[in-house]
Design brief:
The protein is of the alpha/beta class. The chain is about 35% helix and about 15% strand. One of its GO terms (biological process) is methylation.
Length: about 400
Amino acid sequence: MEADYLKNILKPDWKLQKNRRGHSLHSMCTYMASFPPGIPKYFIEMFTQENDVVFDPFSGRGTTPAEACILGRKGIGNDLNPLAYILTRSKVRVPDRDAIKKRLVNLKNKWLTEKEKIDISKEPDKIKMIFHPYTLNQLVFLKNNLNYKNGDIDVFLIGNLMGCIHGSSKGFLSVSMPNTFSMSPNYIKKYIQEKKLILPKRDVFEVLENKINRVLEDGIPETTGECFYGDARHVKLDANSVKLIVSSPPYLKVIKYGMYNWIRLWFINEEPEMVDEKLDDTHNLPNYLIFMDEVFKEVNRIMRDDGLIVFIIGDVIKKDVSVNLAEEVWKYSGEKNGFKLLKIIEDNIEKNNKTTKIWNEKRGKATPTDRLLVMYKKRIPTLINRKVNWNKCQNKDKTLLRYQ
């Protein structure tokens, strides 16, 4: 009876959110195949309480754990992509403003004393054709002096820099190009020649300062979270510790995260080919289901008995036929791993809003339909709130950072 009640009230109400971006922290960096923060917000507010653990084993740009921290829960992410690890961690462990300011001031002062010694001639031609020499000089300096293994401050700075390293306006550092993904070097070279584009001279410190001010406009999250760099099948979490999972598993034969982020990966000293090989997103359907089955086993271990699991899984095209992949995953892995199906929610996406629209429809075989596979472990989760307050947001923080 209680399960039937929940089935009836679970609807894609996140579409009611007028500001689809949500909290300003979510604007740090675009990311392919991401979902709007309204989806985790919906389930967090309805099924969790303060300090509950909310987890995303495929955290991507960190939307779920960041939203959890914003709402006073403990948001935890995990990803095998180094870029995703940086973006997630930078959102769940935001340093205080004074620490950010101090680090940036020190970096700029150091650059002023070393800029004449920086050799950009050794950088790849595909990088030199994107940035003005002045801008590239600063980028190379920061590339050599920032390290995401150094701590939260450097991670936060790198995360924000990833969000402004390339794009099409003065808020970005590169020649005009898309912000969400990196076009191939040959395409960029040809595009620059055809359009007679001029490399814009941008001050990295100034652009980064403005970026951080925008990202922190709605304030710093109420709680601090965590992010792990690893395989979703073996996560560093205690058994029976997670109340809610909201996650979008890897797309089936759709996205090469390394290839389409090669500029960002250059900055963090990662090879796109190595990233794609590690992520191994070339599964056929049988292998994909086996992979998800292994993920489900680990999810069963870490979930509380009253835990709720939400997997956002897009339909795919197989031999010109649309496949409800969420349903296939449930049939193969759900019940045999100890879960109970609550509902599969259809979430039709406008073509202009789906990040994977960067390809034509045949490439990648994605469709405009996502489905939310909603499951629970042993006990039906308690409904904490009947409705979500879509207008609720932290107070605007007008404190601006000045590093000059």
